[in-house]
Design goal:
- The structure is a single chain.
- The protein is mostly helical.
- The protein has a domain of 38 residues.
- It contains 3 helices and no strands.
- The longest helix is centred in the last third of the chain and has 26 residues.
- The radius of gyration is 31 Å and the shape is elongated.
- The N and C termini lie far apart (97 Å).
């Protein structure tokens, strides 16, 4: 019974070591070539950078339509005046 327990522990230890080790070798030159591979800018990942650009593009497009409405005098008058505006 003791040998069976020892063998089981060795098998579990061997399998866990095999699972925890990887095939990818990380060398010092790979680390030095790109210290932060997950970042596209100084502090943002590529996905966060793309999200920022999409949000900026969306805001600018909506702002352009507002500008066109104001230029064509289609925008509602301001209601901040103390006098009545028809």
């Amino acid at each position: 019974m003791r040998t069976m327990t020892k063998m089981l522990c060795l098998v579990v230890l061997g399998v866990s070591l095999a699972v925890l080790t990887g095939c990818n070798r990380v060398t010092a030159s790979k680390i030095r070539s790109n210290m932060t591979p997950e970042l596209a800018t100084t502090n943002r990942s590529s996905q966060l950078h793309k999200n920022d650009l999409a949000r900026i593009r969306d805001n600018n497009t909506r702002g352009a339509w507002d500008d066109i409405d104001r230029f064509m005098l289609l925008h509602r008058n301001s209601r901040l005046t103390p006098w009545p505006v028809p």
